Amino acid sequence: MSNVTGKAYGMNVITPMKPWRTWFNRFSFMISRSIPTSLGGLLGLSFIHFARWAIVKRDQWPDLGQGKQNLANDYLLFCSNFNGTWDQYIDAFADGLPNGLDLLWYTSTKYPHSVPITPFKNYIRANQIDTNYYYNSVPGAAQPDVKAALRVRRALLVLAQAHASSTPEQFRALYVRHLVSVQNDLGYEGYAPVASNDTENAERDRADYLANAGALALAAR
Question: What is the distance between the alpha carbons of residues 49 and 96, in angstroms, rounded to a whole number?
Fold first, then answer.
């Protein structure tokens, strides 16, 4: 399924903006970098892996073989990875960072503001580019799972280092202390509950199609 790999969702949104408005967008980026509290609501959303806005000017559009483009607009590219559903992400974004979103997207053509939420969702949906190729090294783990695993690893390294030089009583006390500190991090990683069988069905149909196409190609030789 597009945009999803394991527990993670990849979002790419590209919105046009008039070239004479680009300077204001650069200025808003400067403000957000110099005043981190303007993005405080974003930093507090732990299910977000990362979020980035970048300006692509009309004369800087990458040439991937399609030839030089003659574009009328500059573009604002937004990329983000997160855990959860599309709706949950947009809702949390709009609730936690309404002024910040308006600051960063204000120059985009026909931007409706982040509140009310329905026009904002329609705008994002209309300008989103599906992610068809999406690699995730830990598909069964969400961001909190990865952080929990790192905390457990650090505790194990401390125990391994202390093992040789500690008495059994000292090591037991150290073990208990670290076990208590990471006991909430000893959860089980696994895929999120299946919301739809479309992906599995599509993969099965694709495999059947490729097998049949291969057989037909061999028969035609």
Answer: 16
